Amino acid sequence: MVGARGSITRRVVISSRVPMRSLPYEWTAHPLREHPAKAVLAIVLVLACGVLVGLIVDAPTVGPIAAGGAILFLFITLNRFFLPSRYRMDEHGIAVRYPPRPLVIGVAAGHGL
User: Fold this and answer.
1) What pLDDT sits at residue 38?
2) Furthest-apart CA pair in the chain: how many Å?
3) Which residue would you say has higher pLDDT here, 104 or 29?
4) pTM of structure
């Protein structure tokens, strides 16, 4: 489903078969810990890209800054892989906490994570 400004939105429906007394459901997803082989590969690739940027920028003072900037950019871009995400589903709706800020879907005020 495509929402405003071309963004993709998802509609989540809580089945009436789920007993509300068993809510809230809370869980955490941390792909870095769940997939250690992919974690090592991601870390190696991020560092390798940083080193390559540092080598391409040949200035002795700007090269390390560019390398650090590239590593920081890739870490921020891949933050949902490197940092844990928290999910909560209750009778008010669904709340998702992605770093660095939460995303709340259908939750009444004051009932977030």
Assistant:
1) 95
2) 64
3) 29
4) 0.63
Peptide bond into 84 cis (omega under 30): no
Q: DSSP for the chain?
A: -B-GGG-B-------TTS-GGGPPEEEEE-HHHH-HHHHHHHHHHHHHHHHHHHHHS--TTHHHHHHHHHHHHHHHHTHHHHS-EEEEEETTEEEEEETTEEEEES--TT---
Rounded-to-integer distance, Cα 88 and Cα 107, Å: 10
Amino acid at 63: G
Cβ distance 70 to 63 under 8 Å? no
Q: What is the tens place of the pLDDT at every residue in 33-84?
A: 999 999 999 999 999 999 999 999 988 899 999 999 999 999 999 998 999 9
- Three-point CA angle 34, 39, 42, nearest 5°: 145
Residue range 14-26, pLDDT digits in tens: 555 555 566 788 8
